[in-house]
Write a structure and sequence with these properties.
Blueprint lengths: L1 E2 L2 H4 L6 E8 L1 H5 L1 H6 L8 E6 L4 H6 L6 E7 L2 E7 L2 E5 L4 H9 L5 E4 L19 H12 L8 H14 L5 E5 L6 H16 L1 H10 E9 L7 H11 L1 E2 L4 E3 L4 E6 L14 E2 L4 H24 L5 H5 L2 H15 L6 H15 L8 H4 L3 H8 L1 H9 L5 H14 L11 H7 L4 H11 L5 H15 L1
Parallel strand pairs: 1-10, 2-3, 2-7, 3-6, 4-11, 7-8, 8-9, 12-13
Antiparallel strand pairs: 4-5, 9-12
The structure holds D-mannonic acid (CS2).
The site of D-mannonic acid has 10 residues, from helix 11 and helix 15.
Length: 452
């Protein structure tokens, strides 16, 4: 058995022209794969920084950033080596982080950060009651080279280093699963800059470009079974293997101030407005995912595949989609095709996507994935029962039924459901910003049905 190395298995390192914050399996199956296949890939190396867990930086060190990507097609595996991660650093390597920002050749910052990681309050502003964030921003104000840990502060730290080094234009291209991620990240950066140095906020206005993107590729956690299977086929021992599905989509809008890789080579689409595509994906894909994660795990299912092959769950997913498409802006046929495509993606038996993984961080996900449909239907005088079922299942999940609770705001969320069912529903709906008796009654009734 052999291990990966650049001489034998990959391309030479491309110069670092992109920095990524929050490297995980998803980015390695998505942005890195698009970059790998761009016609100008030899010009666009990525320096990746870990997010919550530093483990991946250690795992990728011996292979100098190389890893295998296995596309698990229903017909069989297709394995390729990805070479575009030129450097991989632990999250706390701020010297390297600042070094890249100071380099005018580095021109794109990408990210996969959760909603919670941006530390925004309910109004979408920076949460200046978060002590860690406030401490980080104060530290940067006192010393631009201070050590910081929060994502908004890291961005400011990088931009301070860039401005000090001459201030070349740069573009943020967030790949976060968050609506309108471009304006969101710009707002966060600007507000954080204002706290540290108002003149930096002005500099941001002139020199920082922002792109909005919709990203999609289902990428579960890699299992030991995956590693053993691929090792048997390729003869390569790869602790950093990523397994993904055949489908991938990337839709982007906005201005890259200083160039970008030719991602369109592999099918990335550049459009004027990402919002309708993002709403389609976040609602139909992610919304049904979370519905299955809560309602499907109550029925004892472990994976998306198990859940979608249960007729009852399939019916719930279809009912949710029927509610949701009424409020999406794209042509009916396009939405119908997308639903069909989603079903065949979910029915890929080779993708073992754990419902427990998807169930995490519901405090952020339900707000984005189900609440817009509920509110849009309410505005027309109706109750979107397909969408409220997801809320009912989430309430049960928080009460300890089905997949275990794993949420950045777990304490706050489980505190909402300490009373009886009626009281729990009322509090959870208040958290979601929904105040309507009919919805409360529907959710309560669905809570009963789900447990039956
Ligand atoms: C999933 C997503 O874990 C989750 O919340 O819904 O990671 C989903 O698989 C991706 O957004 C697909 O692009």
């Amino acid at each position: 058995m052999t291990t990966l190395n650049r001489n034998e298995h990959g391309r030479a390192k491309a110069p670092v022209r992109m920095v990524h914050l929050g490297i995980g399996n998803f980015t390695r199956a998505h942005q890195a794969w698009y970059t790998e296949h761009a016609t100008d890939a030899d010009q666009w190396g990525i320096a990746a920084f870990t997010g919550r867990s530093p483990a991946i930086a250690e795992t990728l060190a011996p292979s100098e950033g190389l890893y295998q990507l296995c596309v698990a097609d229903p017909e069989g595996d297709q394995v390729e080596v990805i070479s575009c991660l030129s450097e991989v650093h632990a999250a706390d390597d701020l010297a390297a982080w600042r070094g890249y920002f100071a380099d005018p050749e580095m021109v794109i910052v990408t990210s996969t950060i959760t909603e919670a990681g941006y530390l925004r309050n309910k109004d979408g502003d920076l949460d200046l009651s978060n002590q860690q964030l406030v401490a980080d921003l104060a530290a940067l104000k006192a010393d631009p080279a201070a050590a910081v840990t929060t994502a908004p502060a890291k961005f400011v730290a990088g931009l301070l280093a860039r401005r000090a080094a001459g201030g070349a234009d740069i573009t943020f291209c967030p790949c976060d699963n968050i609506p309108e991620n471009g304006p969101m990240v710009k707002h966060v950066i600007t507000q954080a800059a204002q706290q540290v140095d108002p003149s930096l906020a002005e500099w941001v206005e002139q020199h920082v470009g922002v792109v909005t993107t919709m990203v999609d590729r289902i990428t579960p956690r890699t299992t030991d079974e995956d590693r053993e299977r691929v090792e048997a086929a390729t003869g390569i021992t790869d602790p950093a293997l990523v397994v993904t599905e055949p489908f991938a989509e990337w839709v982007l809008a906005g201005e890259f101030k200083a160039g970008r890789p030719a991602w369109e080579t592999k099918g990335a689409r550049f459009v004027d407005d990402v919002v309708p595509h993002e709403a389609r994906k976040l609602t139909l894909l992610n919304g049904s995912h979370s519905l299955m994660a809560y309602a499907g795990s109550i029925r004892g299912h472990e994976t998306v595949y198990d859940a979608i092959t249960d007729e009852l769950v399939l019916g719930w997913v279809n009912q949710f989609w029927d509610d949701a498409v009424k409020h999406l802006e794209l042509p009916a046929q396009e939405l119908a095709d997308y639903r069909e495509a989603l079903l065949s993606r979910y029915r890929n038996p080779r993708i073992k996507h754990l419902l427990a993984q998807i169930a995490g961080d519901g405090s952020q996900k339900v707000l984005i994935r189900h609440v817009p449909t509920i509110k849009a239907e309410l505005a027309k005088g109706g109750v979107a029962e397909g969408a409220t079922r997801a809320v009912a299942a989430w309430v049960l999940h928080l009460r300890g039924v089905g997949a275990p609770v794993n949420d950045a705001r777990a304490d706050e969320m489980t505190a909402l459901v300490q009373g009886d069912e009626q009281d729990s529903v009322r509090k959870v709906l208040a958290y979601l910003g929904i105040d309507d008796d009919r919805i409360a009654k529907t959710v309560l009734a669905q809570l009963g049905e789900l447990q039956a």
